[in-house]
Amino acid sequence: MLDVLLKALAFTAVIAMGYILKKKGFFQLKDFYLISKIVVKITLPCAIIYNFSSISMEPSLLMLCAIGFGCNVLMVGLGYLISLRGSREEKAFAAVNSSGYNIGNFTLPFVQSFLGPAGFAACSLFDTGNAVMCTGLTYSVASAIQGKNGKVSVKSMVKTLFSSMPFDAYLIMTLLVLLNLELPSVVVTFAQTVGNANPFLALLMIGIGFEIRLEKSKLARMARILALRYGTALVLCLCFYFLLPFELPVRQALAIIAFGPVSSVATAYTGALGGDVELSSAVNSFSILISIVCITLLLVIML
């Protein structure tokens, strides 16, 4: 248990280091975008290639894609329901900022380091379904709620999905594993070397991008959304861990995913809808803090 706790604290320290170095002027905003590009286009795809190359996959695990999609639909619906008495704008805001999971940049580094390839693959499959909602469907639903013409076409959604290198890596590696096809060992070794840098860079990036600015008058609204998010996360975590018919590392990965922070695209969608970007950013940042605590406790309990 001590080893797990120390490793989780080391992860938290990396996030804190990124934040402190930004405040001291060592990092600037442009560095966040540079590191983000390295993570999304290089280290994360390599981590996916290596971890998928180390497992055998049952077709039944593809159900995790549907679970990822379904969890997003559930959170959009619950976000709408807690704002029934509010304006259209408040309903749309709650729907967007209650849903989505920041898996690639936050949850995967934890799973990659603690649960091994089987847990990593489970996380990746969940993220495939999660990505479908995060790339456009959630925004379309929120636009409809708000009464705006901000619909996203199927063509633009598909283009966004397949222009995402992690999504392409998920798809290609899932097909290769299901077909029992192996990549050359030199490719796997290269992917392992590069992919090992993913947890550090992803967590450092989160620290650099972390910022909380919020008026006190908006605290109650933020607290309501976060209470919904993490109250539901507890229920989902228990259901995933105790009720699903998968092997232990898969159930552990799903339990961790349930407590993952809000997707980073929520703030971008809020801005596109003309919503309160400051509040959305605060929800996102506080969700990262809460998720760090919850996931650390989960790892200590489960491992």
Automatic annotation (TrEMBL):
Query: What InterPro entries does this protein map onto?
Result: Na+/solute_symporter_sf (IPR038770)
| Compartment annotation | Endomembrane system
Q: How does it sit in the membrane?
A: Multi-pass membrane protein
GO CC terms of this entry: endomembrane system
* Transmembrane segments annotated in the record for this chain: 6-22, 34-55, 61-82, 169-191, 197-214, 226-244, 250-270, 282-302
Transmembrane helix is among the record's keywords: yes
User: What's in the keyword line of the UniProt record?
Assistant: Membrane, Transmembrane, Transmembrane helix, Transport
What is the protein name given in its UniProt record?
Uncharacterized protein
Q: Write down the species.
A: Cuneatibacter caecimuris
